[in-house]
Automatic annotation (TrEMBL):
Keywords: Hydrolase, Membrane, Transmembrane, Transmembrane helix. This is P-loop containing nucleoside triphosphate hydrolases superfamily protein. It comes from the Eukaryota. The keyword Transmembrane helix applies. GO terms for molecular function: hydrolase activity. The chain crosses the membrane at residues 41-63. The keyword Aminoacyl-tRNA synthetase does not apply.
Amino acid sequence: MLIRKGAGKRLISVSTLVSIHILKASTLGSLVMKPQKKLPIVLKIFVPFFLLISGVLMFLVCFEQIRIDKKLRLLSISSAPRSPCQGYQFSKSETGFVHYPQPSNYKREECACTPVRYFAIISMQRSGSGWFEALLNSHENISSNGEIFQIFERRSNISAIKRILDRVYNLDFYTSAAKNECTAAVGLKWMLNQGLVDNYDDIVEYFVRRGISAIFIFRRNLLRRIVSQIANDFDRNFKQLNGTHKSHVHTIQEAEVLARFKPTINATNLVSKLDWTNEYIAAALQKMKRVPHLVVYYEDVIKNSSVLLDVQHFLGVPQKVLFSKQIKIHRKPLRDQIENWDEVYHALNGTRYENFLYDD
């Protein structure tokens, strides 16, 4: 079939038209397919995301492998032979305060697994600390090594102090109080003015780190402490017992000799002196508050035997009846022991310290 087209009357066959339409259709098809060229952009987005996911998965696999390795190491440790001292059960509050020292000078033999607790008796001179320490040392499992830092060289600096403390708590500081193998509580007596006040922060840090507890012992009646202090200073100079100075005595006869001296107390500054002592004690308790501690008073130990039971419980030792051979020196009423009693009475009467006059 022929179709006439245009003024020139050119003839186009049907097959030609069909070919033209097919060509146009293929051209349109190719145009429709062109958006596929955007595929590389999608790949640019997908590939980093794929790499990120792959990295996370690899990290998780590695982390799981490390965790498994740690478990295996723990299993190998737990399967190793146990220490002969393992198996003792303590509460969580006690864990940091139970120790197994290994002294360098001897072996603890059958008591090697006896747990040891560390302590320090902290006090002021003439507060009953010597008598209190003697009571503790009468216990077969307690070793308190005395006033170690009375010697200046041992407290000249914090390094020297720590070296001495290390020896004490490793059971390497030998004194007559040492129980050697079967010690269950070891410590010393430490006066506040023997390097402790000057090094509070370092000593508190050392006590906390080593798991050391403190037992504070003070006197309630600070006036009696002043009497004892002045009398002791007097005897240090005059040595009333056959030319020998004794801070503590073991017979009634010796006590009577020392008690003959009646001190004269400066009544003018007595109240301010008592105030200073109270503040000194309060500051010590405040500075040492991070250290587990027990506060006892000389008068309470004398009047109430349960106080010593509390102390033994605090130290974690079997409770025993404790004793001391020391004899109290000043046993008379204060009016019979102070030379200028009337002045002292008028200085304290009506003040917050008035009860010191009548506590006999």
